Amino acid sequence: MPDFGFSLSKSSSVSLDSLDLGLYGELERLEPGVKTCMACGSCSAACTASVWSGMSVRKLILNLQRGKDVEKMLGSCMLCGKCSMVCPRGINTRHLILSLCRIYKKQ
Amino acid sequence: MQNRNILIIGGGIAGMEAAGQLLRLGWEPVIVEKNERLGGHVAKWYKLFPDMMSAADLVQTLTDGIKEATVYLKTRVASMNRLKDGYSVVLSNGVSLQCSAVLIASGFHLFDAAKKEEYGYGVYDHVITNADLEAWFGGAPDNRVPANPGQVAFVHCVGSRDLKAGNAQCSKVCCMTAIKQAIEFKERFPGAQVWCFYMDLRLFGKKYEDFYINAQKDFGVHFVRGRVSEVSEDIDGRVVLKAEDTLAGLPVKLRADLLVLMSGMLCNSDTAALASMVRTEVDSDGFLRSRDNIYRINESRREGVFFAGACTGSKTVPETVAEARAAALDIHNYLNGNA
Fold first, then answer.
1. Lowest mean pLDDT, pick from A65-74, B118-127, B135-144
2. Mean pLDDT over each residue of chain B, to the nearest integer
3. Does residue B339 have a pLDDT over 70?
4. Is pLDDT above 80 for A75?
5. What are phi and psi of A72, to 5 degrees?
6. Of B210, B223, B250, which to mutate for an interface test with A (greatest number of A Cβ within 10 Å)?
7. What percentage of chain B carries pLDDT values higher than 90?
8. End-to-end CA separation in angstroms for chain A
9. What confidence score (pLDDT) does residue A3 get?
10. Are residues B189 and B135 in the same domain?
11. Judgement on whether residues B259 and B116 belong to the same structural domain of the protein
12. A9 CB near a chain B CB, below 8 Å?
């Protein structure tokens, strides 16, 4: 394509009916508890890494549900497990992160 | 001798339950119902949360309890005049009667979803309301519901929590109704993807939260926090929804085969006329004003006039039934001079 000196930015809109949920589906199988997340944000508020890295298990889960890649965020987790202690739905978030690491390692 | 007649305006579940209780307390209830059958909205419903009880069974139970009551169908109250001890009433069918007390159980009507033009109810082929879906669950044919839907969207808060739609109130039962209907939908179409677009999920009642968790865990219902801003139709006749996923901070788009609008509860339009007949007040939310909203919800500010059910605000079925019983006892005590 010729260079016109400008470009168009990609739409940030997410099409819910054509999501690639392969990653999330695999996580659901390993960690069925992830389905019960109600996005309260307790995990992010308790997270020791969030203040300097933007780490948030809530965002991680939501991004997966919207078909997005989360590998970069995963690297910020220090596996301290505080998020598991505060989750009101009893999701083993620390284990969830380890499972996700395993999924990425397999790929 | 004291007049034993009690006028009950409205033959929905509130009016029916109150009539049944008043009969047992020795009074003679007279039900005036504008439609051609008793049971109100519940008679048109399929299953009731949280026990998934058959709505028809409940209406039958209530009907069995009022065999000795006088019932006027397809009738309205034409006028009411205060007497020394009671009311003189003229009905639209020409009957006039005197009664010792009046129970207003005139209920609610569902917000007309066509007024939210951006959702295309009555315009697009596959847009229905919660009431339409419930009728379809109950066996009424509806060709707006596709044979094998792939994507289905529920929009919460249609005509409720919406100042521009003229109703600032939360209709409170629709969150739970949406989740109940989403689950029923998944039971019929396990392959369908069901999306609920909500502003807040208000699941206040016994077992409601269990429904929410089950919808997520066992039925894979998707929840998106964000109000659908506009709906259009694509060339294949599917509805295209636009909303913001406010948790992700991203715009989202969904092509759906069916859109279900959760219409909220509003006070019946003829309630204001009834209120003026007995000179009682309408509250700022459009519903009838109780003596207070804590201890005397069943009492109007006018002597001998009582309320039951959704004429004073959105109510669930069990709340309505409980209020009807309370109102019957209030009337009984009032007429026995124990109030």
1. A65-74
2. 96
3. no
4. yes
5. -65, -45
6. B250
7. 96
8. 33
9. 87
10. yes
11. yes
12. no
Nearest Cβ partner for A12 among B212, B223, B250 = B250
- Please choose, from the candidates A26, A86, A30, the residue with its C-alpha nearest in 3D space to the C-alpha of residue A56: A86
Q: What is the mean pLDDT of residues A91-97?
A: 97
State how far the Cα of A58 lies from the Cα of A93, in Å rounded to an integer: 10
CB-nearest to A16 from B201, B225, B252 is B252
- Residue A80 maps to a domain: yes
What range defines the domain where residue B94 resides? 5-107+268-335
Same-domain pairing of B231 and B287: no
Report percent pLDDT > 70 for chain B: 99
List the beta bridge partners of residue B47.
B54
User: Is-cis flag, bond preceding B29, omega within 30?
Assistant: no
- Closest CA relative to residue B241, chosen from B262, B224, B256: B256
Q: Of how many residues is chain B composed? A: 339
For residue A99, what are the domain limits?
Answer: 38-106
User: Could you say which of B264, B282, B307 is where a domain stops?
Assistant: B264
- Report how many domains make up chain A: 1
Any B CB within 8 A of A12 CB: yes
Cβ contacts of B248 on chain A, cutoff 8 Å: 14, 59, 62-63, 66
With a cut of 80, say whether residue B191 has pLDDT above it. yes
Selected for mutation to probe chain A from B216, B242, B257, B258 (highest A CB count within 10 Å) is B216
Helices (H) then strands (E): counts for chain A: 7, 1
**Per-residue confidence (pLDDT) for residue B210, from 0 to 100:** 97
- ipTM value, please give it: 0.91
Using CB atoms, which residue from A13, A36, A66 is nearest to B216?
Answer: A36
Minimum distance, in Å, between the CA of residue A12 and any CA atom of chain B:
7
pLDDT of residue A1: 72
Q: Which residue among B202, B237, B264 closes a domain?
A: B264
**Same domain, yes or no, for B79 and B125?**
no
Which residues of B are less than 8 Å from A58 in CB distance? 247
Establish if B214 touches chain A: CB-CB under 8 angstroms.
no
Do B250 and A32 count as a contact with CB atoms less than 8 A apart? no
B87 shares its domain with B177: no
pTM of the model: 0.95
A89 lies in some domain: yes
* B172 and B286 housed in the same domain: no
Residues of B in contact with A38 (CB under 8 A): 201, 212, 216, 223
Q: How far is CA B278 from CA B66, B77, B328, B333, in A?
A: 26, 11, 19, 20
B127: domain CATH number? 3.50.50.60
Kindly report, residue by residue over B139-166, the tens digit of the pLDDT: 999 999 999 999 999 999 999 999 999 9
Would the CB atoms of B216 and A17 count as touching at under 8 Å?
A: no
